[in-house]
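Morning!

This is the sequence you dropped in the shared folder:
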Amino acid sequence: MKCCIFGAGDYHGELLDLARDAFVIAADGGLAHTEAYGIVPNLAVGDFDSLGALPNGVETLRFPVMKDDTDMALAVNEGLARGCNAFFLFGGMGGRLDHTLANMALLLSLAQKGISAYLVGKEGVVTCLCGGACLEFSQTCEGILSVFAASESCEGVTLTGLLYPLDKGRLVQDKALGVSNHFTGQSASVSVEKGSLFLVWDNINNPLPKRSLLK
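The structure's back. Tokens below.
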């Protein structure tokens, strides 16, 4: 079951169809986004300091303001507890940089558990890919795709169908070798044999990639 979580960050209706037939969670101020797009969440989670009041007419889990997890992390934990195995985090970028970085850490944590997750923002989509896996992009994808090491080093990184290909290369955290690659109008793929990668691409109605395991 897929889970769509709406946070309070920048969001302008991108990939909204993903919320259909999904378990929808509003994380605190993300309730404003669900209301704006006519989505009735299955659950509201958070300390509700951003929202300023408890929501009405929806199941609510309230947590203290002084806590270890962000509202988005609490929502992800609740989605996992309810059996969700694919996550789409809307409104998790823009605004406060610290929350954007915290949400990228969430992507890494989920990827390490073998769970696909995406941060969907106004201008870009972010996901994490762990060793032994591959992402395949449609030939209709346009714009920029950047790849960064999410672990200290990533071995066996292969990029195909992009402007700047790479065959079993090595990426490290302190060098941005994979920044600003480009889709070229053909099918493309990114794979890594060891380590974890962050991938960022333009949110211009590009379809989400297909995940698979390396053979």
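Headline: The chain has a mean pLDDT of 91.

More detail when I'm at my desk.
O.
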